[in-house]
Amino acid sequence: DIIEVLKSFNLLKLLFTEVYKKIKCRMNCFTNRNRGIILDFDGTLVQTNAASKFSLNSAKDYLVEKYNILPATANLIVNEFVTLVNKSEKAIVYESDEDLWRKQIWQKVLIDNKAANVEIDTFYSYYKESFLELIEIKKEVKKMLKNLQNSFKIIILTNGNSQWQRKKLEKSEANKYVDDIIISGEHKISKPDPRLFQLACLKLGLESKQCIMVGNNKKADIFGGFNAGLKATIWIRDKEYDNDSIQPDYIIDDICELESVLVKIF
Description:
By secondary structure, the protein is an alpha/beta fold. The protein folds into two domains: about 35-45 and about 135-265, HAD superfamily/HAD-like (Rossmann fold, 3-Layer(aba) Sandwich), CATH 3.40.50.1000; about 50-135, Up-down Bundle (Four Helix Bundle (Hemerythrin (Met), subunit A)), CATH 1.20.120. It has helices at about 1-30, 50-65, 70-90, 100-110, 120-135, 140-150, 160-170, 195-205, 220-225, 260-265, and strands spanning about 35-40, 155-160, 180-185, 210-215, 230-235, 250. The chain has a six-stranded parallel beta sheet, sandwiched between helices. Strand 4, helix 9 (about 220-225) and strand 5 form a beta-alpha-beta unit. The radius of gyration is 24 Å and the shape is elongated. The two termini are about 45 Å apart. Pfam families: HAD_2 (PF13419). Keywords: Hydrolase, Magnesium. One of its GO terms (biological process) is N-acetylneuraminate biosynthetic process. This is N-acylneuraminate-9-phosphatase. One of its GO terms (molecular function) is N-acylneuraminate-9-phosphatase activity.
């Protein structure tokens, strides 16, 4: 009986040792930060669409209250501005001065709608400040990113004009919560080009299979991450950027759910 007890004890000891080794190995992996997270910015870390709507409504109210422009005319001015921006925003990605570009569009629609008396510099500053006011990373997201930095290397990979993106990144203080930042406008290529994802891995000092992509745009983030050979892609559900032909590895409804998915991946 004593022999059997000793055998059982040795077996348990062996099992415990193996479990301990696996746990230690897993802990070392995280401690060494040899896993990478590539994060989208707009719509993922900050709610850019909400900021845009707020700034446009603020611009409309400004025209009505400051210059006594009829609400219908102010609404028309804003709608024409949005239409012109959407038509030509891809062309501005690699240009240096997006502020000048946006200001010129505002000036055009104001003149076209007989509102040339609007002082463009003051108006544009008000519009821009209204936009940046809502560009922020939520407290709970900041806390999550701080925790993840203990175990993962994190990099932001965002599409857009360098000047405009840098201002948003600065306002949100995103640099405090990541290891590096890549802006497509500074490299003359945009997501979903796999070269940008490969550059992100290179900057983190990791292989593609050690990194995952997290974003709200299926074409830019998920399709791009897949073609770059990343370990996994996580889509933050967003109806505006859905695409049935592109299937992510994981789907979440909020960036704060990221930690629970990472446990399944690594």
